[in-house]
Design brief:
It contains 1 helix and 9 strands, in the order αβββββββββ. The chain is mostly beta strands and 148 residues long.
């Protein structure tokens, strides 16, 4: 009985320390179209000339190989007030690690690029993100649109 109890405790501890959250496909885990929202406070040169509260929603498409496009987005800002839909596609890149963390870069050339740290659900359906550009306090989520 004592050895059964010790085995149960050992297995429970192993289960607590095991990390089943693996993104073994790495970049391929993000593949397809996602709807995203990003909100917070802009303060970095990425958002210039806007400062203060910002919100963005749109569609982001990942290719499964490390490239992405934002074909459509709406941006709302408070200072100066704006509600715009850029008439262009935003490109970028991303890298996903085996532990389901990663980062993405949005290319705004000639303006500074935007940078985000990511955490991805192991099935690739959900993304949580936070801006890493100094001065920004911005977070967001994205959900895959397909039915897989």
């Amino acid at each position: 009985m004592k050895s059964l109890l010790l085995l149960t405790v050992a297995l429970a501890q192993a289960a607590l320390w095991a990390d089943p959250q693996q993104c073994t496909q790495e970049n391929a885990i993000l593949n397809g179209a996602y709807v995203f929202t990003v909100t917070g406070t802009a303060g970095s040169p990425v958002w210039a000339p806007f400062t203060g509260p910002v919100a963005t929603m749109g569609k982001i498409v990942f290719d499964g190989f490390g490239s992405l496009q934002v074909p459509k987005a709406t941006i709302v800002t408070a200072n100066p007030p704006a509600n715009v839909t850029p008439p262009f596609v935003i490109g970028g890149s991303y890298t996903i690690n085996r532990d389901c963390t990663g980062f993405l870069t949005l290319n705004f050339a000639p303006a500074p690029n935007g940078h985000y740290n990511l955490v991805i659900s192991p099935d690739g359906r959900e993304i949580t993100m936070i801006a890493t550009d100094k001065g920004d306090v911005i977070t967001g989520t994205a959900t895959r649109l397909d039915h897989n």
